[in-house]
Description:
Blueprint: H1 4-7, E1 11-16, E2 22-23, E3 26-27, H2 31-46, E4 49-53, H3 69-79, E5 84-86, E6 102-105, H4 119-126, E7 131-135, H5 144-147, H6 149-152, E8 155-157, H7 159-173, E9 179-185, H8 188-197, E10 203-208, H9 225-237, E11 240-244, H10 257-268, E12 272-276, H11 278-286, E13 296-297, H12 302-310, H13 314-322
Parallel strand pairs: 1-4, 1-7, 4-6, 5-6, 7-8, 9-10, 9-11, 11-12, 12-13
Antiparallel strand pairs: 2-3
Helix pairs in contact: 2-3, 8-12, 9-10
Amino acid sequence: MLTATDIQGKNVLLRADLDVPVKDSRVENRFRLQALLPTLKLCLENARRTCLIGHLGRPESNNPAFSLAPVLEELKRLLNQDIFFVTSGFSPGECWTGESPLALIENLRFDPREERLDRGFAEVLSQDAEIYVYEAFANYRPSTSLQTIPELLPTRTGIQFDKEIATLNQVLQNPAHPTLLIASGAKMDKLEILKGVMPKFDRTLLGGKFASPDHLTSDGLDLNQETTSLFLQVISQAQTIVLNGPLGYYEDGIHATATKAIFQALKDSSALTILGGGDTIAAIPTLGFKYSDFGFVSTGGGAMLDFLAIGTHPLLEILARKA
């Protein structure tokens, strides 16, 4: 657990989950940024200076369309304070000399070394930092910021990261039964991950491309009424429920029936309800629900499923080796 003492008077390099949906140069959904605030505010109250790093999207090069500038503006609004934006290449030294105690470095993925586990890049980013705080649970694939910087700096996990781990560990180690996994999606590689997760649950219900054709509407874009009723019946009997992915193509406003009904059932349930995934995070407010309607909403989708499958996160493995 990150404490004020860990960061008191220090230069903190904070790896944040800044990969949020952006449209017309504005952040569309700020759930992940709001989840960052407790750790960020702890740093602002206790650290000497804080330097934020993270990425947005999968840019092939230094592409302005993937700039973190809209994220910068949203964070300014959330914090009601100025943030120094380091745009002149990767010059972390600027983080510690600007007028503001908080700085943000431009998209890490603008530099190809982020994806290469590059020690030289890690040394550049770590320059003058005294402690590394990892608050990006959703980022679990190999990268310099995940796997190499923790080798160079004392590292702590952030407040939201710890909540994610504690909640998912409860599902794996001490759940109330029956347990239920509800999963949906369009990418078949997700189904491969699900095969490692499903044995951990008493029951699994699948939607989207993973559902049987006779469980879907005639156009294949939503669960049919009979299947939705079955899902609701199973939900009513479960005590621990994990949902990953909307059950239909809710974005068109036509095929949201099943997802809305299931969200409502989860809201009304006395079970521990855990929801995750980028599409799920977007669907919750779109369909008229609040994040607080559910027991826990994860900032991760693939990371959540990966943790449920293998019982750990790459960062935790790195910290265990260092201990």
